[in-house]
From TrEMBL:
<dbReference type="InterPro" id="IPR001206">
    <property type="entry name" value="Diacylglycerol_kinase_cat_dom"/>
</dbReference>
<protein>
    <submittedName>
        <fullName>Diacylglycerol kinase</fullName>
    </submittedName>
</protein>
<dbReference type="Pfam" id="PF00781">
    <property type="entry name" value="DAGK_cat"/>
</dbReference>
<keyword id="KW-0460">Magnesium</keyword>
<dbReference type="GO" id="GO:0046872">
    <property type="term" value="F:metal ion binding"/>
</dbReference>
<dbReference type="GO" id="GO:0004143">
    <property type="term" value="F:ATP-dependent diacylglycerol kinase activity"/>
</dbReference>
<comment type="similarity">
    <text>Belongs to the diacylglycerol/lipid kinase family.</text>
</comment>
<keyword id="KW-1208">Phospholipid metabolism</keyword>
<dbReference type="GO" id="GO:0008654">
    <property type="term" value="P:phospholipid biosynthetic process"/>
</dbReference>
<keyword id="KW-0067">ATP-binding</keyword>
<dbReference type="GO" id="GO:0005886">
    <property type="term" value="C:plasma membrane"/>
</dbReference>
<keyword id="KW-0808">Transferase</keyword>
<dbReference type="InterPro" id="IPR017438">
    <property type="entry name" value="ATP-NAD_kinase_N"/>
</dbReference>
<keyword id="KW-0479">Metal-binding</keyword>
<keyword id="KW-0443">Lipid metabolism</keyword>
<dbReference type="Pfam" id="PF19279">
    <property type="entry name" value="YegS_C"/>
</dbReference>
<dbReference type="InterPro" id="IPR005218">
    <property type="entry name" value="Diacylglycerol/lipid_kinase"/>
</dbReference>
């Protein structure tokens, strides 16, 4: 009998999962799994529970929650020598990572994906002692209020919010930064940098179009020092995937990246506060095996609000060009 450990965050998203748990347990049991569930109690608890599931040699771990919960579970697994296969049931607010994997939003369909056993090993990002599945990055903000972690999430974690914050852009201040990526070096004043592991950075798939999740490579974006008008124009171009030859942006793929700043700069990891730089980013190639949807199970992106928002934003900035 295979054993499954469900780790769920009761506070994620609209808190709808806990009512569904009995049905989900039945589904796993009927498919031949012996199943147990752990309800997280606080921040960091999913990491401890995931490490314990490795030590107890569960065959699979199912992470139920949003990006924060998935990050914690991946963190708990990544340091272990025995790593169970990982299933995801999206139950958070934005679910960027589940979206990148095209995992359906319905709990039942997400369970079907796991039970269908379509397994692929994917890359995991490591920076210093932390791990990330989606994105890490940093930028110097002058506003003290953005030192608050939850605010940072809105600024850098989900790139969508970076865009929403065109009004926040003046608060980015250029910082002299040295970035070593594989055998090359960039040195100069930068507004922000992003290191993406998946191709869905805040749902903006065009930013890192060629990103693959099992090639051992990050997509590194560096936005160099610009004035306000340029900043808005460059970000808009990047979201449309039209930044390739833009002199204000460095976009390269690399396995190993070191970032050192002259002044204190906070690090953001999968949308949460992740300490301060310097940071050594290492791509752990095909580190965890995930249950992924087959082609006919893949969620078709249908997010009219976001599309409308991008349209509005990019049209507005056409006037500035
Ligand atoms: N019992 C709990 N009480 C309060 N917070 C918790 C509890 N269990 C986990 N957490 C924390 O809740 C935070 C948010 O969780 P999560 O990211 O899964 O949901 P979300 O914010 O709704 O979704 P998303 O990140 O996709 O927008 C995580 O940082 C996690 O550490």
């Amino acid at each position: 009998m295979k054993r499954a450990r469900i780790i769920y965050n009761p506070t994620s998203g609209r808190e709808a999962f806990k009512q569904k748990l009995p049905d989900i347990l039945v589904k796993f049991e009927e498919a031949g799994y012996v199943t147990s569930a752990h309800r997280t109690r606080s921040k960091g608890d999913a990491t401890t529970a995931a490490t314990k599931a490795c030590e107890d040699e569960f065959d699979i771990v199912v992470a139920v929650g949003g990006d924060g919960t998935i990050n914690e579970v991946v963190t708990g697994i990544s340091n272990q020598s025995y790593r169970p296969k990982l299933g995801i049931i999206p139950a958070g607010t934005t679910n960027d990572f589940a979206r990148a994997l095209k995992i359906p939003k319905s709990f039942e369909k997400a369970v079907d994906v796991i039970l269908d056993n379509n397994i692929h090993a994917l890359d995991v990002g490591q920076v210093n002692d932390c791990f990330f599945v989606n994105i890490a990055g940093g930028g110097k903000l002058t506003e003290v209020s953005y030192e608050v972690p939850s605010k940072l999430k809105t600024v850098l974690g989900q790139l969508a919010y970076v865009m929403k914050g065109v009004e926040m852009l003046p608060r980015f201040r250029p910082i002299h930064t040295r970035i070593e990526y594989d055998d090359e070096v960039f040195e100069g004043e930068i507004m922000l940098f992003l290191i993406a592991n998946s191709n869905s950075v805040g749902g903006f798939e065009k930013l890192a179009q060629n990103a693959k999740m099992n090639d051992g490579l990050f997509d590194l974006f560096v936005l160099k020092k610009t004035n306000m008008a340029e900043f808005a124009r460059v970000i808009t171009a990047a979201l449309r995937g039209q930044h390739v030859n833009d002199p204000n942006i460095l976009h390269v793929q690399a396995r190993d990246i070191k970032v050192v700043t002259d002044e204190k700069m906070q690090l953001n990891i999968d949308g949460e506060y992740g300490g301060v730089l310097p940071g050594h980013f290492v791509n752990l190639q095909e580190h965890i095996e995930f249950f992924l949807p087959t082609e006919d199970q893949q969620m078709i992106e249908d997010d009219p609000v976001k599309q409308e928002y991008i349209e509005k934003l990019t049209t507005e900035h056409d006037f500035e060009e």
